[in-house]
Amino acid sequence: MELETEADGKLEAEVQTETIMEMEREVKTQTEGESVERDPESDTRTGEVKREREMEPVLVCVSGSTPLLWRSADLRLVRERMGIVGTLVGSLARQPRQNCRLGRPLQLLLEEARLLKDTGRAVLVKGAESECDDDRVNVEVEESYTKHLQHSYEEQGRLALEEKKRVLQRVMTERFRDEALTDQPIRERLSSLKSSFSFPRSAMMVQLCTARARLGYAPDEHDWLAADWTLPRDNKQEVRYRVYQDLRQQGYYITSAGKFGGDYLIYPGDPLRFHAHFIAVCVPIKSESPISDFLCLARLGANVKKTILLCSLSETESEGVIYTSIQWSGMV
Questions:
Q1: N or C: which end of the chain has fewer CB within 10 A?
Q2: CA 278/CA 257 separation, integer angstroms
């Protein structure tokens, strides 16, 4: 059943994509036909409104110490205009029982959120907090939710029983057409179905609340909702942030490289179009490491066809970040 649902979801997504593409082609055709009659002042006003919307700060919801982006417009803006990639960590409303394709919210690296905040392109707001004191559960809300689940279970059980009856009646009708088969077992099963049918609770569908409140705040509420920045400012984190800031200024796209044993994966363009060329490892300039660590990094980079970059802050501000590349060339 889940496979059929997923297949239907994919088919529906393909149909929607084709419909959107067709609508875009129609709009493009109409636009080309009406290009002569356009008002230049109207185009100018539209461009100004679009630029003002892009200059508005995005809302970063801080849940504990994790920065999240919820609004789809913010996700698109930070990726297209600011080169912030992040990681989707939410489930899809129509396909919640899979983790191949994820949806909102977008989880940001701490360095990504800090860069947005330092450049004035983001406003940090508090995440939703529990309204219960001392971890006490609101009994009335819990009882109401339990009654709702029980009512939903009974309703789904009744619908499942009716569907089972329809299936048996359809089979009995098909057997009636074939004179060589008898429908007596089907009749007996249909008569005892109501007493023997059991609808398992594990098959019950539960509605997932995908809507999130507190995403659109008025400007005068930003100060009251301003979140405290909980990012640790030790030497290691400062090196990571300075390296991230320098690479972004050079136009590179950056994601986390935890599964490659480094700090960042560095892309020459959008990760949807390019493979990563470098694995950045942030180390303090005066730190000492055994030679075996560098050998492991070099062998890892060779296996995944990427260059290892050792990134350190120079002792003088004028030199900025120092990059040292490591590549495996073989045993001597």
A1: C
A2: 10
Q: Which residue has the tokens 């077992």?
A: 185
Side chain identity, residue 10: K
User: Mean pLDDT of all residues in the chain?
Assistant: 76
Beta strands in 87-203 (DSSP E): 87-90, 103-107, 122-126
Length of the chain: 332
Encode 14-53: b = buried (16+ Cβ within 10 Å), e = exposed: eeeeeeeeeeeeeeeeeeeeeeeeeeeeeeeeeeeeeeee
Do residues 326 and 311 make contact, with C-beta atoms less than 8 angstroms apart?
no
Model pTM score: 0.57
Q: Are strands 58-63 and 122-126 parallel, antiparallel or unpaired?
A: parallel
Residue 59: name the closest of 185, 217, 194, 239 by CA: 217
pLDDT averaged per 10 residues in sequence order, the chain, 332 residues: 43 53 56 50 62 76 85 88 89 80 89 89 70 57 83 88 83 67 68 78 71 48 53 77 92 91 92 93 86 87 91 81 85 60
